[in-house]
Every structure is written in structure tokens, then in C-alpha cells.
């Protein structure tokens, strides 16, 4: 069973959707139209895309075997008040050139966040992680707590092996037929060879219960399919296996006790239709002293897409708080 919890690129700002707000003071260069950069990391480069004006937010996409493309253009709605810095994690998406799977570890992914911070000349960063991206945000905050001013953990993935086991248990109990269908697809030669259509069929089953509305589900599936290539699938899949070994496959992986040391204001956003157990977000909230959990109605695992107005309202309140 894959560990993937989330996932093409449509670049446009949705600033007309929401009125401007008044976030924290500007921390970085501003851009009103999307711009692209290539950030050196060893022998490779990280592809980054930035848009918007205001407080800088580094966006950490999910997966871990996907890239940032499933987040846009919907998350771009924040660009009227925030400077959003997306990047494809090493070996994935447009950051795949000259990267071998063995080059990627949980430690290298966290080092790459630090490279992004330095590249954009940010002092203390705001991190916004979605799904697996919340794991990276928390790992980075534990390593560099003085360099993180705020965190937004959107539809968080498990922060411990025990919570990951609970996720697997619930899926096996609640979705036995879906799990068997996925197992059959994963055993096929086409899936093993990275056929994009077959892999998309796999994730159609995987993400069907993750969204509250059919139209949002179809949107995610379409973006996922558009981002797939055979070479990208195989490399990202191998990277995912390595990151699993560094985290949920390790019997003693548990960030929760360590999170009690953080004093970083943290907003945790979940949904009533989340397909990750509610206990995952609750445990992270209980562990971080200055964390606040919001559970949105009529919203699933992709809250930025499914409930944009409610997400924006909570983010604005979060940044107004002292």
C-alpha cells in the first residue's frame, strides 16, 4: 500500500475572489505575476514558482511522490495578501533532473527548505504544508525553530508511526473493497512500469472518499493525471519508498513528544470529510503548545480547493492574532 496521501500547472492569481486582508509585515520581495526560479541544491536544482505580495509563505506540497501543481491555481487565491513560494521537492516534478532516488532523504528534504529560505533572503519563514507537506513543516520546525515564525498545517498527515498505523487500520476496516481493488491494480505490470493511465486509475480509487463533492474530486484527478509521466512516476515512487523508511516505516518514528518544545503559532486545518483519522490532527494540536485546530464543514482532504472562503477566513484570523 502506498503512503501517498495527496497529489497540471495552471498559473493565474485569483485575487478577485477575496478582498485584501492585513497580514504580518512584508518579509520578502513582492511579485504580482507568477515568476519562476531554479534553486541550486548540490548537483540538482529545485524548481520554484512565486506569486503575490505580502508576507512570504513557503508552500510544502503533499505526496511525497507528487509536485506542487495540484495546489494551483486554487491556493493562488491567497496571493492578493501573501507572497506564495511554491517549489517541487527534490526528485519530483520539475525538480527531478540529475536527481537519483538515493539522493533523497527526510534530512535532505529539510535541508532543501533551508536552501529555499536562504535563496529568497527570508529571516523567519511562514510554512504552509499540505498533507505530507505538514510532516516536512514539522520536521523543519524541530530542526530550525528560530527560523519559523508561523505554521499552517493543512489536512495534516500522521506525525507518528502509530497514527499512520491507525490510518491503515481505518482504511482496511472501512474500505476493504477499495483496498482490494487498489492491491489488484498495484500488482499489474502496467502499474509497476509506471503507466500514467493505470496509475491514475489507482489514485481514482484512493482519493474517492477524500473529497466531499464530486466536482472537486474530478478536478484533483484531472490535475493528477496531467502531472504524470512514466519516468516521473517511477522516480517519485522510489523516492516515496525512501522517505517511508525515514518516517512511517520506522517503528519508533514519533514527532509528537518533540513538538511540545515548539512555541510557534500554528493553525491546523482539517475537514469533516477528511479521509485521514481525526485523531491525527488532534494529536498534533495537543502536542504543540500554541496550536489551534479548525475543522471545516463540507470539506475533505483538499480544503484549499473545497472550502476556499472558510480557509481564507481562518488564515486571516490567524495572522491578525498576536
Throw out a few tags for this protein.
disordered N terminus; 8-stranded mixed sheet; Rossmann fold; 12 helices; globular; 8 strands; alpha/beta; 322 residues
How would you describe what is shown here?
By secondary structure, the chain is of the alpha/beta class. The protein has a single domain, classed as 3-Layer(aba) Sandwich (Rossmann fold). 40% of the residues lie in helices and 18% in strands. The protein contains 12 helices and 8 strands. The protein has helices at 106-119, 132-143, 161-174, 176-186, 189-192, 196-207, 214-227, 230-246, 256-259, 278-287, 303-306, 308-320; strands at residues 31-41, 44-52, 55-60, 82-87, 125-130, 148-154, 266-271, 291-296. Strands 1-2-4-3-5-6-7-8 form an 8-stranded mixed sheet, with helices on both faces. α1 (106-119) crosses α2 (132-143). The longest helix is centred in the C-terminal third of the chain and has 17 residues, at 230-246. The protein is globular. The termini are far apart.
- Which term fits the overall shape? globular
How much helix, percentage-wise, in residues? 40-55%
Order of helices and strands: EEEEHEHEHHHHHHHEHEHH
- Structural class call reads alpha/beta
Number of helices: 12
C-alpha Rg (nearest Å): 18 Å
For the largest sheet, list the strands in their spatial order.
1-2-4-3-5-6-7-8
What is the typical, i.e. mean, pLDDT?
91
* CATH H-level superfamily title: Alpha/Beta hydrolase fold, catalytic domain
Amino acid at each position: 500500500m502506498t503512503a501517498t496521501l495527496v497529489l497540471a500547472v495552471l498559473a493565474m492569481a485569483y485575487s478577485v475572489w477575496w478582498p485584501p486582508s492585513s497580514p504580518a509585515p512584508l518579509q520578502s520581495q513582492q511579485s504580482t505575476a507568477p515568476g519562476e526560479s531554479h534553486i541550486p541544491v548540490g548537483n540538482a536544482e529545485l524548481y520554484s514558482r512565486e506569486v503575490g505580495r505580502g508576507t512570504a509563505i513557503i508552500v510544502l506540497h503533499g505526496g511525497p511522490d507528487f509536485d506542487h501543481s495540484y495546489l494551483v491555481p486554487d491556493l493562488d487565491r491567497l496571493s492578493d495578501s501573501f507572497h506564495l513560494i511554491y517549489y517541487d521537492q527534490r526528485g519530483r516534478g520539475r525538480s527531478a533532473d540529475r536527481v537519483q532516488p538515493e539522493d533523497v532523504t527526510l534530512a535532505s528534504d529539510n535541508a532543501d527548505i533551508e536552501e529555499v529560505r536562504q535563496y529568497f533572503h527570508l529571516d523567519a519563514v511562514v510554512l504552509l504544508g499540505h498533507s505530507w507537506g505538514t510532516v516536512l513543516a514539522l520536521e523543519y520546525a524541530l530542526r530550525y525553530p528560530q527560523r519559523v515564525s508561523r505554521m499552517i498545517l493543512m489536512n495534516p498527515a500522521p506525525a507518528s508511526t502509530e497514527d499512520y498505523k491507525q490510518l491503515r487500520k481505518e482504511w482496511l476496516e472501512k474500505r476493504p473493497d477499495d483496498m482490494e481493488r487498489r492491491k489488484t491494480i498495484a500488482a499489474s505490470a502496467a502499474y509497476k512500469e509506471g503507466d500514467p493511465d493505470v496509475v491514475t486509475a489507482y489514485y481514482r480509487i484512493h482519493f474517492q472518499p477524500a473529497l466531499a463533492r464530486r466536482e472537486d474530486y474530478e478536478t484533483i484527478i484531472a490535475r493528477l493525471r496531467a502531472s504524470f509521466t512514466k519516468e516521473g512516476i517511477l522516480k517519485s515512487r522510489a523516492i516515496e519508498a525512501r522517505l517511508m523508511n525515514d518516517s512511517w516505516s520506522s517503528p519508533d518514528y514519533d514527532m509528537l513528544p518533540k513538538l511540545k518544545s515548539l512555541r510557534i503559532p500554528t493553525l491546523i486545518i482539517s475537514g469533516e470529510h477528511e479521509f485521514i483519522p481525526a485523531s491525527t490532527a488532534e494529536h498534533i494540536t495537543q502536542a504543540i503548545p500554541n496550536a489551534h485546530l479548525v475543522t471545516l464543514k463540507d470539506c475533505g482532504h483538499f480544503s484549499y480547493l473545497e472550502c476556499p472562503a472558510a480557509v481564507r477566513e481562518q488564515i486571516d484570523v490567524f495572522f491578525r492574532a498576536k
